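sry for the spam today, last one i promise. struct tokens for design, 205 residues
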């Protein structure tokens, strides 16, 4: 026959088992919540990455030497009217242009419409690879001289042949004349966006 003391010991043991079960349940719930949080964060990252993949980059033509003012005005308009534009940047390598990243051309045009110093958007949509060199410039010792025939390796004049008219080494820029144009068009380009394809001095060794 079980004594009274034994019965209390038995009940105490049951209470401990119940408490252990409750603790285990709480741990399982917390683990599930943490897993859900991680899954939610992962989904948000995927959505953000997808949004970035769906974005488009446009080259906006602006008045030369007024790039900073044009950029400020565009940024102010985007903020004030809450236009869906992801980013804007002044490209390294070309004067007279600003890069604008948005989900579509409609938002890009709304951001720059009827603003001083803005001349319009280049029709071609650019990829990040095409503008990467201007957004993340790499310093290099580039040897380009006057009268060199060069190829422009950056948008919007990518693959165009030109002749170097003037070099400004202090600014790291060159004024070139496009060879394919009916009327000579002077364009100011950063030296690291030019590739020499012919040089008269090479014959003299």
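last one done:
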């Amino acid at each position: 026959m079980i004594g009274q003391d034994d019965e209390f010991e038995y009940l105490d043991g049951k209470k401990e088992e119940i408490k252990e079960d409750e603790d285990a349940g709480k741990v399982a719930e917390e683990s599930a919540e943490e897993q859900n949080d991680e899954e939610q964060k992962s989904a948000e990252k995927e959505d953000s990455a997808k949004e970035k993949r769906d974005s488009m980059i446009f080259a906006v033509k602006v008045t030369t030497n007024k790039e900073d003012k044009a950029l400020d005005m565009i940024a102010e308009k985007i903020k004030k009217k809450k236009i869906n534009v992801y980013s804007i940047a002044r490209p390294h390598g070309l004067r007279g242009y600003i890069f604008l990243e948005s989900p579509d051309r409609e938002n890009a045009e709304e951001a720059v419409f009827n603003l001083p110093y803005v001349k319009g958007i280049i029709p071609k949509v650019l990829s990040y690879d095409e503008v990467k060199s201007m957004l993340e410039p790499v310093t290099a010792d580039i040897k380009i001289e006057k009268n060199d025939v060069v190829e422009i390796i950056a948008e919007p004049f990518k693959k165009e042949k030109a002749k170097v008219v003037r070099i400004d080494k202090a600014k790291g820029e060159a004024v070139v004349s496009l060879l394919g144009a009916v009327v000579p068009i002077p364009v100011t380009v950063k030296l690291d966006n030019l590739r020499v394809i012919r040089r008269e001095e090479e014959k003299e060794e």
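Residues 40 and 56 are 27 Å apart (CA to CA). ok im logging off now
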